[in-house]
Amino acid sequence: MSGGFTASHLVYLVQSIGWTLVLSALAFVLGGIGGFGVMLARISPRPWLSRTALVYIEAIQGIPLLILLFIVYFGLSVYGYQVPALVAAGLALMVYSSAYLGDIWRGCIEAMPKPQWEASECLSLSRWQTLRLVIIPQAMRLALPPTVGFLVQLIKMTSLASVIGFIELTRAGQIINNSIFQPFLIFGLVGAFYFALCYPLSRWSQSMENKLNVSNR
């Protein structure tokens, strides 16, 4: 054991939070863009497109995120592509997020009352106009709580990026613990930092869900 926990170790942990947030934001934004496309494909009137999106969702949801990380980081290197850890983690989390967000948003779109679609047809709106002007604005309110809830899970799942060497909060804790071996203190702090990041979002999601349930009564 070489020394104890110092202020420099604490600073290192705090700085690593920034990379956790960067990876979470990257995965959420890119996954959201992909998820929107998956949602549109899933609700498409074209059966082949809807079935393709369903197969994609079920395949990604059936594969552990850790395996996706290995496929992107180690798999691409077999073909000569040396992918940086941040890029590999971002790509794997983007694919993972797109499947879950696409499925969440598809459910919210399909939860909209059928008369909304029928009224739009009476106004001679196209399917895209109906989605853009009528359905999606209403579905966004319904989708916000589960979307924020998924973001909470995504922040915690960034810890898996430590297995491919990306230095986020969990990996920073491992590095410090390897040098001073104080696991209860170090990983207790890491857990406290994750709690500080996730708890406000969890409460916000719960608050929105409660308001939504009250307004629907």
From TrEMBL:
Keywords: Cell membrane, Membrane, Transmembrane, Transmembrane helix, Transport. It is a multi-pass membrane protein. One of its GO terms (cellular component) is ATP-binding cassette (ABC) transporter complex. Residues 17-205 form the ABC transmembrane type-1 domain. PROSITE patterns: ABC_TM1. The chain crosses the membrane at residues 17-41, 53-75, 81-102, 142-167, 179-201. This is Amino acid ABC transporter permease. The lineage of its organism: Bacteria, Pseudomonadati, Pseudomonadota, Betaproteobacteria, Burkholderiales.
